[in-house]
Amino acid sequence: MNSRHTPEDHAALIRRYFAACNAGDYEALVDCFTPDAVHYFPPGLPEVPWRGADTIARKWVWCVQTLGSQWTIERIIVSHDSPEAMIEWTHWKNKSGTALRGAEWYDFDPATGRIAEIRAYYASPANPETPINELAGFDYSGRGYHLGSL
């Protein structure tokens, strides 16, 4: 790992990325990524994967404006010896009163420290009949996860 970018730097960048998502801040979002970054998703969403910092930023701004999206980070684990991290998150879709839980794997560009790739994994397929899509039987409350929208 490039000694300029520590695990603490990577965790801070993920938190900055989520703050930019929640703010719907296009410029701050672009600044988190390499220009050619890729964000992968499970099947079912249109136009995936999202390729390029511009596309990723525009799509998240759209989600905030259209769905009332907000995100919480539930857990972060950052590698001590390679430029990668794993998080669990909740995506609160406030306009529909639903939420989706999942996890993401992050690869960081060693030269710049920016996000080069995100691989998102959902707890379950997004089910429009379910108010909060999450793992069946998992004790979200007992483990300290957020239980309501922001």
UniProtKB/TrEMBL annotation:
Residue intervals of the SnoaL-like domain: 14-118
Gene3D superfamilies the UniProt entry points to: 3.10.450.50
Transmembrane intervals: none
MF annotations from Gene Ontology: isomerase activity
Cited InterPro entries: NTF2-like_dom_sf (IPR032710), SnoaL-like (IPR037401)
Keywords: Isomerase
Domain of life: Bacteria
Protein name from the UniProt record: Ketosteroid isomerase
